[in-house]
Amino acid sequence: MSPPTFHRILIANRGDVAVRVARTCRRLGIVPVFAVSDADRDAPYTRGQEAVVLGPARATASYLDPVRVVQAAVQTRCSALHPGWGFLAENPLLASLCEQHGVTFIGPPAHVMALMGTKSPAKRAMRAAGLDVIPGSDGPVPTAAEARRVADEVGYPVLFKAESGGGGRGMRIARAAAEVEGAFADAQAEARAAFGDDRVYVERLIEGGRHVEIQLVADRHGHAVHLGERDCTVQRNHQKLIEESPSPVLDDALRARTLAGAVAAARAIGYVGAGTMELLLDGDTLRFMEMNTRLQVEHTVSEARSGLDLVALQLEAAAGHRLRLRQEDVRLAGHALECRINAEDPRDGFRPSPGRLTRWRLPGDQGGAIRVDTHVEEGYVVPPHYDSLLCKVIAHGDTRDQAIERMLRALAELVCEGVATTVPLHQQVLASADFRAHRYDTRTLPGWP
Question: What is 126-150 written as a DSSP string?
Fold first, then answer.
């Protein structure tokens, strides 16, 4: 059977990822069709484009409804569906419904997504593939007593995490045995409310680690490659703020060993498409945390260093083609940084700042060294319903210092009035001595009080 040809692709997402996917579709001669909510039906990126309304602004009745999303693909005669990131991007049900209705899901098979979406089976699969994992329970713990037994065994402090979780929800810390029962109950309650699944597991809490992730691409024929690693240590409440590649703290031997292990693990589980393995640097060991079975917000950093189009590689894999890319073909050059610019006020506890953009000017590209991914324009009204990301600024340089200086220049040129943004935070972090000397971990924001 010959691989499918995509003529029309439904983009089941919004904002900058919808714009990003559509850009590659158009370059490849594919018609992008935007699936939008009522709140986004007049968004700048939908003007003059094909769009279908999923439902009201409330995400649960639009972007998070898999039946409506697949119906939209069928009704608009789209042969494939790109889920973007967030919303239903890692939902096995969406992938299964696509398969049932003859729509190609641009991502891994549903069973692989389900395996990596539940944390305990994912850790077992990665351990079997040879990666180091964080010590903890071998699956969810059913009772507080069992949680206490595991915690006593692996050592305090421990972290309770939602089996079906993400984004920092369903997580609680116990620093001593007396705190286990309360932390276990709180983690269960939050997991039940956030994910409809109150199962939690236990891990030893690694404090002061570095968050490192590996970008992978695989086809349906057992071939996989990596595009290097990204360091995502600068974050707040488990939400990434700045990403960079390569990591400034990995030695060559650890980097090479872990990259090779990640590729082997992707092959072992039958992964397809673009995916990211997230790890935590524990002393001199990189330990697997989870796998994101989708395109990442920060994929741009890997694109800047490799010169490759990850969305195009996703489409190639989804269509059933063999990746023409060998590992030796991947050339990673220089250093790249990404800053996520959100409509939030960092001086007021990161309070969301919806409203109208009264002035909006993007920075110059500095001879191709700066890239800006955005879905907004002057006059755009930032809605209160969704993530507050306005744009991503990506800087590339021959060295880390050069990339930082280019980023600072770009942030100084970016004009955004009408809403508060995180630009001041990024400027302060990037200019700090601690960031320059990479003296920080996941608990700290270098240069920020």
Answer: HHHTT--B--B-SS---SHHHHHHH
In a domain, 151, yes or no: yes
Same domain (yes/no): 187, 249: no
Residue 78 near residue 103, CB atoms below 8 Å: yes
- The predicted pLDDT at position 117 comes to 85
Q: Do 146 and 91 belong to one domain?
A: no
Q: Are residues 217 and 140 in the same domain?
A: no
pTM of the model: 0.93
Distance of alpha carbon 147 from alpha carbon 123, whole angstroms? 18
Close Cβ partners of 368 (under 8 Å, ≥ 6 residues apart) = none
Q: Is 154 exposed, middle or buried (0-12, 13-18, 19+ CB in 10 A)?
A: middle
Low-confidence residues of the chain, pLDDT below 50?
1
Distance separating alpha carbons of residues 160 and 222, to the nearest angstrom: 35
Q: Which of 101, 110, 240, 83 is nearest to 167 (CA)?
A: 240
Q: For residues 257 and 350, state if they share a domain.
A: yes
Per-residue pLDDT reduced to its tens digit, 92-144: 999 999 999 999 999 999 999 999 988 788 888 999 888 999 999 988 999 99
Domain boundary among 146, 174, 204: 204
Could you tell me the residue range of the domain that residue 299 belongs to?
210-436
**Length of the chain in residues, anyone?**
449
Which of 147, 172, 204 is a domain's end point? 204
- Residue among 294, 305, 340, 406 flagged as catalytic: 294
Total domains in the fold of the chain: 3
Active site residue 294: yes
In angstroms, the CA 316 to CA 3 distance is 9
Q: Taking the CA of residue 3 as centre, how many other CA atoms within 13 Å lie in the half-sphere pointing to its CB?
A: 15
Instruction: List the beta strands (DSSP E) in 300-403.
Output: 335-342, 344-345, 351-352, 355-356, 359-361, 370-374, 381-382, 389-397
**284, 167: one domain:** no
Domain match, 263 and 181 both: no
23, two tokens: 């850009």
222-268 pLDDT tens trace: 999 999 999 999 999 888 999 999 999 999 999 999 999 999 999 99
Q: Which CATH number is 154's domain given?
A: 3.30.1490.20
